[in-house]
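Researcher: Next sequence.
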Amino acid sequence: MKILITNDDGIHAHGIQILVQELSQIAELYLVAPDRERSGTGHSITVFDPIKVTKTTFPGVKQAWIVGGTPVDCVKIAIARLIEDKIDLVISGINHGSNLGSDVLYSGTVSAAAEAIIMGCPSLAISLDSDHSESDFSFAAHFTKQLVISLMHWGIEPKTLVNINIPAVERSRIKGIKVCKLGLRNYDNLFEERQDPRGNKYYWLGGSLMQEEQDQDSDVYAVEHDYISVTPINLDLTNYTLINKYKELTLSFQKRNFPDLETTL
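Model: Next structure:
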């Protein structure tokens, strides 16, 4: 199996190093990761600046590159240009910190995995529920390796993104694995006003996570209660329950305001 590994914490992050050590035992690895931390970049891509790519060496991988761009840039350029072999699976992580609920929309980790789906390759996004860079990633990496072994046996469904969050607790405290839906994640956003040396105002985003009641089927609830959360994510954002309603409303709107337009609804 040929696996592309990336992240949003940068190529020197502890999580990606431990992941490579584990997966190098079972697969042929390619590593394409950002030159520095790119957390919170979501699905952004670099279009107005050149993307600097530097080939490097990395223990346990066949080929490795450092990319001066976003996590999504890494996946796009890796599959489209850098790697000649067909990639069987993309793994993004292991992230320092969880990616739960609506956080997946901000997450560079999950967005890199989502880009793999767009490019026709199944993917996993792996996160450890800890913000400490020196956290113990060994169990998360071992779990990922065992999951990949199972996927090799089961077969990997195409265009499938699975978001996985692992509690940062001792192995003995992890209760099990739950397949979940996305939960709720909201923040009391705080924009602190400051001034630069020239007197110009700027703002620094802060704030903390708001405590909300969670559905027991959600990924947030699972991780808070020491379960590993496994969430299949669909990139189709269409709200199908509203399609027929909006067809009726739009048809009425068109007949009333633009009767000369062809009816195609």
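Model: The helical segments are 14-23, 71-82, 108-118, 138-154, 219-224, 243-257. The chain has a mean pLDDT of 94.
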